[in-house]
């Protein structure tokens, strides 16, 4: 195993990184304010990326990937830094040597995560994964027959399954908006879609940001604001948010955000990051806290119930501790997750966001150049809708994207013949009778612009070879 490596980044070094971070902040991919100059700045910063190869090479050295393969499916699985692996190893051995239990609410680790994600320890839970976080969020709320959830037709099973349970168990009505695909959309379109669908019985909105199907970053802040205005609960499936975005959970204004620890954040498998709003902060979300009961917990009073939820900025109860405390847990993985978060903080979350999204923007531009902009399922021109996932139709004959076997073969051949790990995913497209099986690329901090250029060349070459009837 490689030795631990620390990143020797000089924060005072003048480089394009500050420009990159600034461009990302201006662009506001989490649904902040768009700036007309932001895209141009982002493009300039992206082209300057190669100039700081030394820094990102050092970052690449923190991981232990198999040589010869380029991993671009982080949306499915990340990869732990070596120092997290070492900690997992030593903590597992210590637990075994000392016959230790895992009864804890893991406050120390929750404090680390709270610092990383702009919230307080009583609001952040190390869940089992995103799906687990979505179950905690949805199943813990109080539902009555006829209550309605407004969601989308591009949700993951991680959210769809608990919504189906609510439907069957309580008679909750699930209403879905049809999401557009491609580059001809703006953040306002999503607000309008949801706004029109929300009715008098709507109790909550559930949306993925970004969606795993097209890599479209739904504008979290704008949608959370809409939920506040409509007086409904907002639940974000943010599986891809931790580790990709420099997110401040308070600032997002949502009630719940369930993210993965094991994807972009590169924590151990079996970890997620769940934000549960637990105080009323008027500058972010002035709405009263919804009634909530932890559903999987060992920490609930046997008589008397929970204290009333706070109406101000001081919590009346450590809700996250209640959700976190369920019997004896796998302590080393939580320590590992906190370690990966520390590594990200050391590198700089703004830089990671700017770097990973810039590579994706570069990829999107190259796809638009070679295949035409209509091949993109991910938007590229509204900076509020972009992220480090890129979904597109790789086939020269666009109809071929409806053929699952052909799409599966494309992904397999990209690995077998060119050494790139990417994936495909199916989804409905407005106006098409059949689902599309687009491919999806994740650009993370161990990739660079050369990898992206070579990926494009490989995909173009393969799409030429596969252009048969
Ligand atoms: C949008 C989205 N939600 C939920 C999940 C499920 O993630 P997990 O394995 O962390 O439960 C995924 C996994 O890819 C996803 O992309």
Automatic annotation (TrEMBL):
Protein family per UniProt: Belongs to the class-V pyridoxal-phosphate-dependent aminotransferase family.
The protein's name in its UniProt record: Selenocysteine lyase/cysteine desulfurase
All residue ranges annotated as the Aminotransferase class V domain in the record: 95-455
Top-level taxonomic group: Bacteria
Key words of the record: Lyase, Pyridoxal phosphate, Signal
Pfam families: Aminotran_5 (PF00266)
InterPro entries: Aminotrans_V_dom, Aminotrans_V_PyrdxlP_BS, PyrdxlP-dep_Trfase, PyrdxlP-dep_Trfase_major, PyrdxlP-dep_Trfase_small, TAT_signal
Signal peptide: 1-40
Keyword Lyase set for record: yes
Cofactor(s) recorded in Swiss-Prot or TrEMBL: pyridoxal 5'-phosphate
PROSITE patterns referenced in this protein's UniProt entry, alphabetically: AA_TRANSFER_CLASS_5 (PS00595), TAT (PS51318)
PANTHER family in the cross-refs: BLR1280 PROTEIN (PTHR43092:SF6), L-CYSTEINE DESULFHYDRASE (PTHR43092)
GO terms of molecular function: lyase activity
